[in-house]
Each structure stands twice: as structure tokens, then as C-alpha cells.
Amino acid sequence: xxxxxxxxxxxxxxxxxxxxxxxxxxxxxxxxxxxxxxxxxxxxxxxxxxxxxxxxxxxxxxxxxxxxxxxxxxxxxxxxxxxxxxxxxxxxxxxxxxxxxxxxxxxxxxxxxxxxxxxxxxxxxxxxxxxxxxxxxxxxxxxxxxxxxxxxxxxxxxxxxxxxxxxxxxxxxxxxxxxxxxxxxxxxxxxxxxxxxxxxxxxxxxxxxxxxxxxxxxxxxxxxxxxxxxxxxxxxxxxxxxxxxxxxxxxxxxxxxxxxxxxxxxxxxxxxxxxxxxxxxxxxxxxxxxxxxxxxxxxxxxxxxxxxxxxxxxxxxxxxxxxxxxxxxxxxxxxxxxxxx
Length: 341
Ligand code: SAH
Hints:
Layout: H1 8-15, H2 23-33, H3 47-56, E1 62-69, E2 76-82, E3 87-95, E4 98-102, E5 106-107, E6 125-126, H4 129-143, E7 147-152, H5 162-173, E8 185-189, H6 193-202, E9 207-211, H7 217-223, H8 232-246, E10 250-256, H9 264-274, E11 279-285, H10 300-309, E12 314-316, H11 333-339
Parallel strand pairs: 4-7, 7-8, 8-9, 9-10, 10-11, 11-12
Antiparallel strand pairs: 1-2, 2-3, 3-4, 5-6
The structure holds S-adenosyl-L-homocysteine.
């Protein structure tokens, strides 16, 4: 059994049949959260217990397949491989307010957004709670940089892996985990509406980011398949509910695509959609995705200024890690290249 990502009580249950005292669970948990993934290195455990643990359990079946550091901005990109061959990417970014990691929640993605590299590779499976915890802990341990913020914006749709993502958030927030405040965690979704209502009920205090990318159904359905299931109106209603229920301001992500969603008309529609709401719009420069006909917009600043003038809180997201394919929506790029996809 994988012990990483489990609560102390769950570890106690797992080791009880081995005849180990309860306090061992806390010791094991402390080692794991510091990035020690081999029982043999847990030096305050007896040699016998270390061996028993190794025979019956493991911390996590993961390794770091590759690790690249951007020469431009120090962004670090990791490719993780799990024991069944499933892969996941994570990125560590340095900001003035501290270090932030972007993690994957699934190996591959089912959502099929036209502008995203993650859609290009087949969905393999959901990542487990422990595997997501491993991404965070391994990136901190290997880089030597303390992680203060987490964004669930790597490969995968977090709300499509709800059963593992919620326990992951609770673990990473706990003192046995990484003690990272829920306010320092953002979950990004393409808009699985029923799950947004479920998430609101959890009252976790995380920030909800919505990949909006278009203000009307016609445009949004063209670039995001999910919009054919849950339309813009249903999505915004769910977001209003989330804000009302949790008091947490929604962050809308909007990647500007030339002549698709960057026109005056789109901007007017976006203003009409969000006017009067206590929310934030994060404008993203579209990153290059192989063989995609979609191009970045040249109207970023004008679009942003117009939103601000209309009273909408909008900013342009800084690009990081471009030289290592670590930017938004690009996480699969290098892996795809190697696989010939
Ligand atoms: N499935 C989740 C999280 C992963 S995507 C979601 O859809 O939100 C993380 C963010 O990167 C999303 O806002 C996504 O829309 C954006 N993104 C994807 N491809 C991009 C690209 N080529 N350029 C810029 N942003 C992109």
C-alpha cells in the first residue's frame, strides 16, 4: 500500500497488522513530508520495522524522469513517472511572494480543449492522492525551494478526479502534510458545473479559477468541448453560487486567441457577463501548441485596458518557463515530441 497522502489514522491502520506501535505512524509521516521516500532512510525507526515496512508497503511508486531549469527565469519543470508507466508534469515557479508549484491531477486529460497540449495525448488515468502529494514534496525536496503556493493547473481536470483531489487538498493543508494554507491553493477547472456545487459545500477556502476563454456559447463551444455539456450561463451561475457560499472571489482565466475571442465584440460580451461581480480576470497570452491553427492575440493590452475601464478587475499573466515548455497548456509538449505525437 502507498502510505504517502494518508492521514496519521490511516497510516496507523495500515501498520497495525505489522505489530507496530501507533507512534510509528507520525514518524513515518514526518519523513515522507520531508521528501524521504525510502523506508531504509527513516533512521529513527528500528531496523526490523524498516524492513517490515519495505516488505509490506511503499511510500509511493514514483520517480523523477526528467528535471529542467529555465535559464531565463529559474522556472523548474519536472516529469514524474509512476510504477505503471503513467506520467505527470509539475512546474515550480518563483514569484516575489514566494515559490509556487503547478501540479497535474491526471495522467492525460479527457476534456479536449482545442488550444491545450494536454488534449493531444491519450488519457491514461486519474492520479492518486499520494501521487499528487509526491509531486509537491518531490519538487520542494529536489529544488531546495520552499513551496508556499500550489496551483492545480497542470495536466488534467481536477474536478474530474474529485475523489482524490479533495483528500489531497486536505493532506497538503494538514500539519502532517505540508501545512500549506488553503488560501494559498488554487484549483482550476474548465467548468464541470455539478462539481463546482459539490466543491462549494466543502468550504475549503481555496481559490477557484475558471478557464472561461470565451463569453458566449458559440465561441466557447468551438474551443472547449465541455461547453456543449455545461453552457456559459450555467457555469457563471455555479460560480456566483460558489462565491456566495464561500466568500472566495472567482478568478476567470482567459487565453487570448487571435480573431477568435480577442475582438471588441468579445470584450463587450465579457464585460456584460461579469460586470458588477466581485471577481478577477486573468488574461493569458496563448502559448504555442504544435499543429494548432490557433494563434496568440496582439490585442492583449487593449483588451485588458478596456476591461479595467469598465470596472472589471483584470491583469495579464506573466509568462514563465517558456524555454522549457513549462508554460500554461504546454506541459505535454516535450513529452509529446519525444513520443512522436
Ligand atoms: N483542466 C483545468 C486545469 C488545467 S489547464 C482547466 O481547464 O482549468 C490550466 C490553464 O491553462 C487553464 O486555464 C487552461 O485553459 C490554460 N491553457 C491551456 N492551454 C493553453 C495555451 N495553449 N495557452 C495558454 N493557456 C492555456
